[in-house]
Amino acid sequence: MSNTLKIAAGSIVVGIAVLGLKLLAWVMTGSVALLSDALESTVNVATAIAALIAIRVAARPADSDHPYGHHKAEFFSAVLEGVMIIVAALLIMREAWLGLMHPPALNAPFAGIAVNAAAGVLNTIWCWVLIRQGRRLESPALVADGKHLLSDVISSVGVLSGVLLAVATGWTVLDPLLAGLVGLNILWSGWKVTASSLSGLMDEAVSDDTLADIRAIISDKATGALEAHDLRTRHAGSVTFIDFHLVIDGQTTVDEAHDICDRIEQSLRARLTDARITIHVEPEYKAKHSGILVL
């Protein structure tokens, strides 16, 4: 089992543990805000399962029906996760509205807060693991899961603060009011995750910094060529697709042109480990006198 799959499986275990703690905190207190926190954790478990399935699919090798691989499966998982976050936010806002109409009395608030705080600490640790390892492994599903948990951590802090304030002041209406604010925050988080994942499904180019590195490598390692133009990039999960036209002097042999391409590809893969590179070699009269000049 790969490291990515192990982390994804760990998210399910952590999600179930956190959900259990938050449900216990809600049962102990009857707090609408703590119920809203628990509702979001049900989404955490569901999206962790979706992420695990997507990562397994994305790891499949290319086949005759999917010659470019299955890497985009992770983006589908991230989009689903964003949609489910939005659904959770709407459910939370519904509970908040009902709580505003009939503010509940809080029972054993300090014990419930302590249990919820323990769940928050566990979520914080796992959130850091997901985002850090997801970026290292270039897994959109893990990063999206980590960002979702980050919104959960932030909302949990707000929930705990609000419940404490409601207990201290006796204003029980603060409990559902805070739950509504938490719902709005989670709604915004869900939109950001969804929008980011959709850009990957739409074959978004690599970041400006990565593109600058690619251009610099081609310019530096294409010695013997004249120029490179029509550079295009896109990313799908951990894979980066790069293609461009390389203009070669007409007197260059096929072997020499092949060596130039090999040199460029090796350097690009040293920078982007899982890169898929396509180079279209062209004769000198095809030069556009633009794009990437060879040093």
TrEMBL record:
Topology term for the membrane? Multi-pass membrane protein
Q: Which domain of life is it from?
A: Bacteria
UniProt-listed Gene3D superfamilies: Cation efflux protein transmembrane domain, Cation efflux protein, cytoplasmic domain
Residue intervals of the Cation efflux protein cytoplasmic domain: 207-284
Q: Which Pfam families match?
A: Cation_efflux (PF01545), ZT_dimer (PF16916)
Localization in the cell:
Membrane
Task: Give the transmembrane ranges.
Answer: 7-29, 41-59, 75-93, 113-131, 152-171
Q: Which UniProt keywords apply?
A: Membrane, Transmembrane, Transmembrane helix, Transport
For the Cation efflux protein transmembrane domain, which residue ranges apply?
A: 11-202
| Similarity remark | Belongs to the cation diffusion facilitator (CDF) transporter (TC 2.A.4) family.
PANTHER family membership? MITOCHONDRIAL METAL TRANSPORTER 1-RELATED (PTHR43840)
Q: Which NCBIfam families match?
A: CDF (TIGR01297)
Kindly provide the name given to this protein in its UniProt entry: Cation diffusion facilitator family transporter
> Which organism was this protein described from?
Paracoccus maritimus
From which lineage does this chain's organism come?
Bacteria, Pseudomonadati, Pseudomonadota, Alphaproteobacteria, Rhodobacterales
